[in-house]
Design goal:
This protein is α/β, with parallel strands linked by helices and 262 residues long. The chain is built from eleven helices and eight strands. The protein has a six-stranded parallel β-sheet, sandwiched between helices. Strands 5-6 form a two-stranded antiparallel ribbon. A hairpin with a 2-residue loop joins strand 5 and strand 6. Helix 2 packs parallel to helix 11, helix 3 packs across helix 4 and helix 6 packs across helix 7. The longest helix has 22 residues. The chain is globular, with a radius of gyration of 21 Å.
């Protein structure tokens, strides 16, 4: 009797398994850009397209959002991203993916390179490039000065002290108050957050989408896309338009990219 019941339970489980797999969805965390919000219309267009294509999509307000900017450090942000992926997995996601716009793209690639776990990354109109800030040219000059000041604070044992530091978002000057150590985690070009460094460690296929009017477009392929390890599934997408409307312009291609990885 015990043997018969065991076989019956196994048979019922086998019958149920295909139904679960059929109803489960791939999970995708979609992250907005610097100083933005999940409701940003171009991002919502991309989120809606992914949802319509059968993805379970999370679009939270991240540490660089309009209301949180800039909160904590990069390590804490990667932990937060992992928490959202955990949520998708608990809800039955069959595969996990990351996509981001601007700073969201940089963070997505950093997570994939440092933590793994995801089967694909879409970097859309990538922004926040620490090495670019450190050149000190034009609007980046105050940021370079702040990086040097934060380094000096850290070297003198004052890395935990709060101070005002410079940032810029697509040439628009910004100021943030945070600890020197936290600031360096986001901006110091030697601390591994620059997308060119993380792209060189990409453990999965990557879509790199960039508009022709984006400030990074002239060297997007040579200085960014070409850093990726060889993988025939990588995709370079040249789009019309500029930085802000990137998520909407890339919507169809992003859906097709992730569909090919499911």
């Amino acid at each position: 009797m015990i043997i018969r019941r065991t076989f019956l339970a196994a048979a019922l489980a086998a019958l149920a398994a295909p139904a679960v797999a059929q109803n489960a969805k791939p999970g995708l965390l979609l992250m907005h850009g610097k100083g933005s919000v999940p409701q940003f219309p171009p991002l919502r267009k991309l989120a809606d397209a992914l949802s319509a294509a059968g993805f379970a999509v999370e679009t939270p307000a991240m540490a660089w959002s309009r209301d949180r900017y800039l909160q904590g450090n990069v390590a804490a942000t990667l932990d937060e991203i992992g928490g959202y992926l955990d949520k998708l997995a608990r809800n039955g996601a069959t595969k996990l993916f990351l996509a981001g716009h601007s700073l969201g793209a940089t963070a997505a690639m950093a997570f994939a390179a440092k933590r793994g776990r995801v089967a694909g990354v879409a970097m859309i109109a990538t922004g926040h490039v620490p090495r670019g800030y450190f050149t000190g040219q034009g609007a980046s000059a105050p940021v370079r000065d702040s990086i040097l000041a934060a380094r000096a604070m850290a070297a003198n044992g004052k890395g935990g002290e709060i101070a005002s530091f410079a940032d810029n978002n697509q040439g628009r000057a910004m100021t943030t108050r945070m600890s020197a150590n936290d600031y360096l985690s986001w901006f110091d070009p030697d601390l591994g957050f620059d997308p060119r460094d993380t792209m060189a460690q990409a453990p999965c296929p990557v879509l790199f989408a960039i508009g022709r009017d984006d400030i990074l477009f002239p060297y997007a392929r040579t200085q960014f896309f070409d850093k990726l390890p060889p993988d025939p599934r990588h995709m370079f997408l040249e789009m019309p338009g500029g930085h802000i409307d990137g998520p909407a312009a890339a919507a169809d291609a992003t859906v097709n990219f992730f569909r090919g990885l499911v």
